[in-house]
Write a structure and sequence with these properties.
Length: about 575
């Protein structure tokens, strides 16, 4: 049987329920507040007796989820999400039955543990009342003994049609397409036939959910043709060991590479945390992320620093003219504000979307605790093991974004004159593979070796080059550096990374092993990046190693320099800005 996309209007009308007025779906200027729980734990896929996919420690998982719901309820929220298979039904049951859930305008989208017909019937029978109703596909389990469903529970508040009394609703949507990596879903899962589309009215933002492997079997431009011309938010909860495989992400790759700029569509993907496990197989990365295509996304220093600090990392998806904001890999609750997917009810001047802003991050310490600490533990630990001088790099006064800029200029990862801006910086670029090059997001396993190479260059620069300056040209331009060369990086001197004994800034780049032609290209880019500073060309040194047919000796250490020397663009013989060192 094919999958149907049903507006919730239809199912609510059948039960004499009014449409909810969900804040996340109002196309206005107000931000919406999201709580996203990136759950961690061990999952057991059991095929003996009654098949199931559940937490190995369901009691702990229920405690975490219920405490999360209660915290979010106290704080108020507009959207709350948890990943596939994460939440025991008991936590949903206890929360919706309590007085803690009474939030008209809010929507919970909860990925639940696998459930049998008996479990769902018991859940429904215990909760159905004049003030609470449980809804689901009625025929999914027909003649399907020994089967389970993979449910997402939509939880919201609405009113009885024609009445002023609020009623709580739990609407289950069941997964329609199996994950083929393991046999349990193919063999024992009862498939749903409907995916629900939420809307406040025909002019509102729309919202839909695809569950994990349903991403393998969807084309946004054809499957969602019922509202393809509408603004919408697509949720993609997962329990996935490989969330970046080509087939699974193809739907969003195709969509964002082909849709128009400022398309009013965003995707929120969320997975279990790093180091979770499915039957002993460890999840090495989570890749929970926000996908958006807005030209006005706010990426000033304040926004980047705040989001980095709390675990949300901006990446510039250049070829798709989009942005991917990736969450920290570890277990946490992330709370953030975001612009509405559409503001079409406003005048044109007020329709810009500025992207997400982190509010808080919570970790589990027997209860959910708000933390406000730096997340770079894996980066710090690696640099400590590497050795070398990273004291300035991790100085408490060094902002998150300036740490990336300092590394960019020090290792020569410059590709244009506006490299200081995050949307022009090499470390912030991300391609269709969705591998993050952000040094602050050191956790990405597919770019870790690349980042280690950059850090090794920085360690050579900080530990060797600036502390042993025998290689440096002996002339008036660099004499102060020979006397005392220290790392220094601050606004607005983004193109300088050291100072001499007199406090004047200079720039030393360590390009590692490379070809002289690449050094020439790098030098040209760096000079273009600082066109109005006449001092910069005389305070720039690029150090590199070159191996061709033979080792190249260092250039003579005392080039003939004078204040009236020709510009570096024509001074190819004596230009000291590229110092070639024999690698020891």
């Amino acid at each position: 049987m094919g999958v149907k996309y049903d507006f919730i209007d239809k199912i609510l009308e059948q039960h004499q329920l009014a449409m909810p007025d969900l804040k996340v779906l109002r196309p206005d200027y107000e931000h919406y507040k999201t709580f996203l729980y990136q759950h961690s734990g061990k999952v057991v896929a059991n095929v003996e007796g009654i098949p199931s996919v559940k937490n190995a420690n369901s009691k702990l998982a229920a405690d975490k989820h219920l405490a999360f719901f209660q915290h979010a309820g106290r704080e108020t929220f507009d959207l709350l999400v948890t990943p596939e298979y994460s939440c025991p039904l008991s936590a949903v049951h206890d929360f919706v039955k309590s007085a803690d859930f009474d939030h008209p305008g809010s929507l919970m989208v909860i990925g639940c543990e696998s459930s049998t017909l008996n479990e769902l019937e018991n859940f429904s029978n215990d909760l159905n009342s004049d003030s609470l109703v449980v809804l689901m596909e009625s025929d999914v389990f027909a003649s399907k003994e020994n089967k389970f469903v993979d449910p997402v529970a939509y939880v919201f508040v609405t009113k009885k049609a024609g009445q002023d009394k609020y009623i709580r609703v739990v609407l289950f949507q069941f997964k329609t397409y199996p994950m083929g990596a393991t046999p349990i879903e193919n063999e024992f899962m009862a498939f749903g036939t409907k995916r629900y589309i939420f809307r406040n009215d025909e002019e509102s933002i729309y919202l839909a959910t695809i569950i994990c492997s349903e991403g393998l079997n969807i084309d946004l431009e054809t499957d969602l043709r019922q509202f393809i011309d509408k603004p919408y938010l697509l949720l993609h909860p997962q329990l996935n060991l490989s969330p970046r495989t080509a087939n699974l992400k193809q739907y969003r790759t195709n969509f964002f590479n082909n849709c128009a700029q400022d398309t009013s569509v965003e995707i929120l993907c969320y997975n279990w945390a790093k180091d979770s496990a499915i039957d002993g197989e460890v999840l090495t990365y989570a890749h929970s992320a926000i996908y958006t295509k807005t030209r006005k996304i706010l990426i000033d220093d304040h926004r980047i620093n705040r989001n980095d600090k709390l675990g949300l990392y901006y990446n510039n998806w250049k070829n798709a003219k989009s942005s991917i904001l990736i969450f920290d890999e570890n277990e946490a609750v992330f709370c953030f504000l975001n612009s509405k997917v559409s503001k079409r009810r406003l005048n044109v001047q007020n329709q810009a979307r500025y992207g997400p802003k982190m509010l808080e991050r919570l970790v589990w310490e027997g209860k959910w605790v708000v933390v406000d600490n730096t997340l770079n533990q894996s980066l710090v630990e690696y640099c400590r093991k590497m050795g070398g001088d990273f004291e300035y790099f991790f100085n408490e006064n060094m902002s998150f974004i300036n740490r990336e800029r300092l590394l960019s200029i020090t290792v020569g990862e410059i590709s244009g004159k506006e490299w200081v801006s995050p949307d022009k910086n090499e470390f912030f670029k991300i391609s269709d593979d969705e591998y993050s090059r952000r040094i602050n997001f050191f956790q990405d396993p597919d770019t870790k070796d690349l980042k280690i190479g950059w850090l090794n260059k920085y360690a050579t620069f900080s530990t060797s080059l600036i502390k042993n300056v025998d290689w440096m040209p002996r002339n008036g331009f660099f004499q102060d550096l020979i006397s005392d060369c220290k790392i220094h990086y601050s606004s607005p001197n983004y193109n300088y990374n050291v100072v001499g004994v007199n406090g004047l800034p200079a720039c030393i780049v360590y390009a590692g092993v490379t070809d002289p032609s690449k050094v020439e290209e790098l030098r040209a880019l760096m000079l273009k990046s600082h066109p109005d500073d006449n001092t910069f060309p005389n305070r720039l040194l690029i150090v590199y190693h070159y191996f061709g047919d033979r080792e190249v000796d260092p250039k003579p250490p005392v080039p003939n320099f004078s204040p009236t020397a020709p510009s570096f663009s024509t001074n190819n013989n004596d230009n000291p800005t590229a110092i070639n060192r024999t690698k020891e």
